[in-house]
Amino acid sequence: MNEYTRHTQVEPEWFNKFDRGQEWVNKNKRYDPLRDVYIYNEVGNNSNESNETSTALKVGFRVCCMTALQHPLDYAKTLIQLGYEPIAPRPGRTILGARRMMLPNIFQYAYHIGTVDGFTGCFRGLSAKLVGNVLSSFYGEKLAIGLGLVASEEKRKHREENDFIWFLSNVQSHVAVHFAGIVISQPFHVISTRMMAQFVGREQLYSGLWQSVKEIWQTEGIKGFFSGIVPRLIVELGCIVIPSTITYLFCRYIEQSRTLRKSVSSIAQITVKSWLYPYHVVSTCMIVNGSRLKAGNPPLMDNFVGWHDCYRHLLMTNDHKRGLSFFFR
Q1: Could you report the per-residue pLDDT of 217-247, keeping only the tens digit for each?
Q2: Contact 269, 243 (CB under 8 A)
Q3: Minimal CA–CA distance to 156: which of 36, 315, 274, 70?
Q4: 3-class SS at 101?
Q5: Could you say which of 26, 139, 151, 328 is the most buried, measured as most Cβ atoms within 10 Å of its Cβ?
Q6: What is the C-alpha separation between 168 and 151, in angstroms, rounded?
Q7: Rg of the chain over all Cα atoms, to the nearest angstrom
Q8: Cα 23 to Cα 12, 29, 272, distances in angstroms
Q9: DSSP strand E in the chain: where?
Q10: Confidence (pTM)
Q11: Residue 94: exposed, middle, or buried by beta-carbon count in 10 A (0-12, 13-18, 19+)?
């Protein structure tokens, strides 16, 4: 049972057979368009508010813990995506046993950051990332529903009549929520990435959240807070739409087995993430490019006209997938 259904329960078919009348059911149940279910509260409206608050706190705590645990590796991956390699290649062997010069893996890179800045230095940029992730998780869904981007109950009723309409409305709902979440978190994602990029030039321009906001506002204006958002949207939304479409078509025309459906969905997710990964690198580069950081200016990085220019440059130099592999680099 997940965090959501622990506090609210899906209405079973036999619910009306118990003592509670239909009037109570209609008063306390509500439709959740994202989960495609009716939910109800055991006590009533007061319980509804307390349950939502409790769920939000638990989700926020879980997001913070997961983000903090993986941040040192994300830190190292960000610097790799920017093309910064402080450790010289060393002789090593590929996965097939061939000898070649190899760059340090992501764990060795993270250890290097720790030796330079200490243990706490491995968590530079974490505060801005936490704020962005929590706000995105909690308000992304609310914003999408408030703007009317999430499928309504009427569309849900078409599920029995046309499964393709249901599939489209379901994908639309998830895309809308993720889109809203990305827009909300992007300013904090930019600040977090630039905080980490300071490791390259040892600057202190983004030493705090408020100072970072002030720096971006004074040097780039409002558009600076949304640097690199287009390639990020391509990655995030593409990883929802494409695997979902592949899984739907497979189940619709080939095989409807639950086990195979999960396998196809997992394989599609991995394949699409690898295929769209270059846009992740482009997003990271465009976030830093044009700032006053050494990592985003020549000679370490060219000045790009736009993200298309950055993508073409990375493709020509064969750097469009740097950071994809954790071990054999």
Answers
A1: 999 999 999 999 999 999 999 999 999 888 8
A2: yes
A3: 36
A4: strand
A5: 151
A6: 9
A7: 23
A8: 16, 10, 47
A9: 9-10, 29-32, 37-40, 90-93, 99-102
A10: 0.79
A11: exposed
